[in-house]
């Protein structure tokens, strides 16, 4: 990565973190309700039976109500568990106990599955710092999802979950960065052509 790209990513991430920190609780609650409905619509339209998602942290767009909805609909939900080698294991969501992985990310305490478990899902819902109008995703800098998506032979639709202001004209990019098929924001679902 060139210094210019690294600096541009670092600056954009800092700006986005600050925006997220300054959101009010009523703004977050309203965004969560709309995000949940759009994610439900997306999953229903695609007729998914198995999805890969994640458990959001307090500063992220809240996908937990969607994960709970999917589980109640008997849709199998796989959640990532980060490993020291930069790969993701997966664990089925069971609405049970949670713990933090070695990066402090919330994960279920259910059975741990290998990185290959994601190959059987119908939809992948990923976190992001930002996505540009062409579908290029910028994550938070650890590369877990880029590695996962880049290693899949047959990748199902991938949608990033963001606040509206995090869809931008352009994000700094590197060769390993992976685009997404769409974004889900409080104002709706945007699909990108591939």
Automatic annotation (TrEMBL):
Q: What is its EC number?
A: 6.3.3.2
Record-listed ATP binding positions: 9-13
Query: Which residue windows are coiled coil?
Result: none
GO biological process entries:
folic acid-containing compound biosynthetic process; tetrahydrofolate interconversion
Residues binding substrate, per UniProt: 55, 60
Recorded GO MF terms: 5-formyltetrahydrofolate cyclo-ligase activity; ATP binding; metal ion binding
Q: Name one Pfam family in it.
A: 5-FTHF_cyc-lig
UniProt KW Lipid biosynthesis keyword: no
This protein's UniProt keywords: ATP-binding, Ligase, Magnesium, Metal-binding, Nucleotide-binding
Q: Kindly list the cofactors needed.
A: Mg(2+)
| Top-rank lineage group of the source organism | Bacteria
Catalyses: (6S)-5-formyl-5,6,7,8-tetrahydrofolate + ATP = (6R)-5,10-methenyltetrahydrofolate + ADP + phosphate
Matching entries from SUPFAM superfamilies are given as: NagB/RpiA/CoA transferase-like
Q: Does the keyword Magnesium apply?
A: yes
* Region listing for Disordered, in residue ranges: 173-194
Family membership: Belongs to the 5-formyltetrahydrofolate cyclo-ligase family.
Q: What is this protein called?
A: 5-formyltetrahydrofolate cyclo-ligase
Q: Which organism is it from?
A: Diaminobutyricimonas aerilata
